[in-house]
Specification:
single chain, about 210 residues, three-stranded antiparallel β-sheet, two-stranded antiparallel ribbon, about 15% strand, disulfide bond
């Protein structure tokens, strides 16, 4: 793949394909032709066509990966709530999301961006400075992205296993105010109730009129 016909060493336009409307260049010195038949190198405008024969397999595996990724979010929150005392649950959730953002959301795009940049073939040159990427190596990008995803998933699995091994249940927290109130109500129900007068009216004798 070349940036332009001049970069490929093409000298003339051979013809234009009527079906696609793309121009075919001939006499391209940088493109290797059939030497035995004495053919010159030819080039066609546009990018090289790429086809993915394993797209159904990829979509199936991608769906399973996304499902397991989001299925682990609720058990992680539940584990956090069970590992801290009742009075520190909100504090524990806050620390958990700080760690998630600091170690996942912030460096994640940077890591995958560097992986994508490695697979770039042709960079834009803006007055000596590197600009955007014109062309990526698709197979290399897929391999690098898959390798990075597998490494991060393995690290997450290892951390979950270490957390499950080192888990120690917290000490029993004191009873909450709701439980205390309920128990107080139960004790009050055991107290004897004085007989009410026949008319059902209770009068405070110490109250002033």
């Amino acid at each position: 793949m070349y940036y332009s016909p001049c970069h490929a060493g093409c000298t003339s336009i051979n013809h234009t394909e009527p079906s696609t409307g793309k121009q075919v260049y001939s006499g391209c010195g940088c493109v290797v032709g059939n030497v035995s038949w004495g053919e010159e190198g030819s080039a066609l405008t546009g990018k090289c066509s790429s086809s993915c024969h394993h797209m159904p397999v990829f979509l199936s595996l991608f769906f399973v990966t996304i499902c397991f990724t989001f299925l682990s979010s609720i058990p992680a929150v539940t584990a956090t709530l069970r590992c801290v005392p009742d009075s520190q649950r909100s504090f524990g959730l806050g620390i958990q999301w700080i760690v998630v953002r600091a170690l996942g959301s912030v460096p994640g795009p940077i890591a995958f961006g560097s992986v994508i940049d490695i697979s770039c073939i042709l960079w834009q040159d803006q007055c000596g400075d590197q600009g955007s990427c014109y062309i990526y190596h698709n197979s290399a990008m897929s391999q690098y992205t898959l390798a990075a995803g597998i490494i991060f998933k393995l690290l997450g699995t290892i951390f979950f296993l270490v957390a499950s091994i080192l888990y120690q249940p917290p000490p029993e927290s004191p009873q909450s105010s709701c439980e205390t109130t309920d128990q107080g109500t139960e004790h009050m129900s055991d107290l004897p109730i004085k007989d009410l007068p026949d008319d059902g009216v209770i009068v405070n004798v110490h109250a002033r009129l």
